[in-house]
Write a structure and sequence with these properties.
Number of strands: 0
Order of helices and strands: HHHHHH
Structural class: mainly alpha
Number of helices: 6
Mean pLDDT: 84
Shape: elongated
Largest sheet: none
C-alpha cells in the first residue's frame, strides 16, 4: 500500500475511537490493524462508477460492441447525406446521432428495454415538433 492510500484510509477513520463507536463500526484502531495485516482493501471506498458501468453492461451489452454498431450507423448516414449533398440542421443531426446511439443499445443489448424505445421516439419527436413550430 502506498503512502497516499494509507493516509486516505486514516482520514476515513478520523474522529472514530474505540470508546464511542458502534460495535463493529470502523475505528481508527481497526483500520490501522487491517492495513498492517494486509486487509486494507476491505476498507476501500465504494466506486459508484463501477456500479453504473456494470448495470449499463447488463442492459446494453459490451460498450466496445455498442460503439462499433453506433459508429457504423452514423458513418452510413453521413456518407449518404454527403452523396446526396444534404446538410442537416444541428437538432436533426443530434437527434439522428442519439437515435443511432439508442439503436446501438437495442441491437447490442436487451431489445426489450423500453426506455431505449421511448428515447428513440423522444428524439424524433423533438425534431418533428420543431418542424411544426414547437421548440422544446
Amino acid at each position: 500500500m502506498n503512502e497516499h492510500d494509507y493516509q486516505r484510509f486514516l482520514s476515513d477513520a478520523e474522529g472514530c475511537d474505540s470508546e464511542t463507536s458502534t460495535p463493529g463500526a470502523l475505528t481508527r484502531e481497526s483500520l490501522e490493524n487491517a492495513i498492517e495485516g494486509g486487509d486494507a482493501a476491505m476498507f476501500m471506498r465504494h466506486d459508484p462508477i463501477t456500479d453504473i458501468l456494470t448495470e449499463r453492461g447488463k442492459a446494453y451489452g459490451p460498450f466496445v460492441d455498442h460503439a462499433n454498431i453506433t459508429q457504423t450507423l452514423k458513418r452510413c448516414i453521413a456518407n449518404h447525406l454527403k452523396y446526396r449533398g444534404l446538410v442537416l440542421t444541428v437538432d436533426q443531426q443530434e437527434a439522428l446521432d442519439m437515435i443511432c446511439h439508442k439503436i446501438g443499445r437495442v441491437v447490442n443489448g436487451n431489445p426489450n428495454h423500453v426506455d431505449s424505445w421511448d428515447d428513440i421516439a423522444g428524439y424524433a419527436r423533438l425534431v418533428a415538433d420543431r418542424l411544426r413550430g414547437v421548440v422544446r
